[in-house]
Predict the 3D structure of the following.
Amino acid sequence: MTVAGTSGHGPLAGVRVVELAGIGPGPFAAMLLADLGADVVRVDRPRGAGLAVDPDYDITNRNKRSVLVDLKTDDGPARVLDLVERADILIEGYRPGVAERLGVGPETCQARNPKLVYGRMTGWGQQGPLAQRAGHDIAYIALTGTLGMIGAPDAPPAVPANLLGDYAGGSLYLVVGVLAALHHARTTGSGQVVDAAIVDGAAHLAAMIHSMLAAGRWQDRRGANLLDGGCPYYGTYEAADGQYMAVGALEQRFYAEFVDLLGIPEHASAHKDPARWDELREAVAARFKTRTREEWTAVFEGSDACVAPVLSLREAPHHPHLAARGTFTDHGGITQPAPAPRFSATPTSVRGGPARPGADTEDVARDWDVPGLLKGGPE
């Protein structure tokens, strides 16, 4: 098995990360750092974490290594602190105060390693009236106004899986935060705490929408705006076979090509006339119902009409463009998204499959020079 994190692949080669095992956005953030070449050591608890999938299929643990440490035992915190002393970044996703009670809070860790970047991943943040409350993605994006923007005007808000909150508003902001703090630490010699809250990130993602709202260009309700399905040339339509096509013909030149290929040239002048949008939507929907998704895909192939088939998760890897780019890859029998983004000088790759809990204790103890890690470890 390739030893993840020591193979020198990716722009973060040489960066050491300790991940205190959790669920959701923390593991995904650590996976992204590992994909970029960091040596990520996941500290798994002996009894595992809730909601976890079978470790053999947990892609969010790829390119990492795992050790088993029970932080509730007498020597557990000391073993983690030995790793912390040699790390650049630590990531934890406990409720505020839990890491401190376990003996691995930021003050304790930075006393051992003043340059450490301590990344904290939560839904509500480290302070505020809800900081100690339980929650999940859907509640976080609900309070920020982002959930309320999504869906049809005559239906409940649509749930965007846990992509918008956990991963876009959470993981990605944590990664940006810890990398910015790492740059600061390497410049000044001082680490810091990064408080990454999903509510903050999800709110921040809507910056452009808030600009449009302030300028009177966005109505504060679903399905009434240019980018939320209210516009008939920016949305999805059902084809004759029950599959869907996505339309994003916003600009005039793209819209003109769209109505021409769709076969409704009489609606060419409706682009800038919201009073005609209902009429246009009915015409577009009726036309899409006359052919299958595959047939419409062929019609728009090679055009600038900004129309694409809506593919399923299993279909997506086989699309010619994604296949040509290698957007998805197969590793260990699992089809999965390849690391992103791409780098010209330090290419990334899937170097190792999902780390089995505790499987890498001996290797990490040797590579990080932490012999005490073996005490109480797996046989």
The first helix runs from residue 25 to 35.
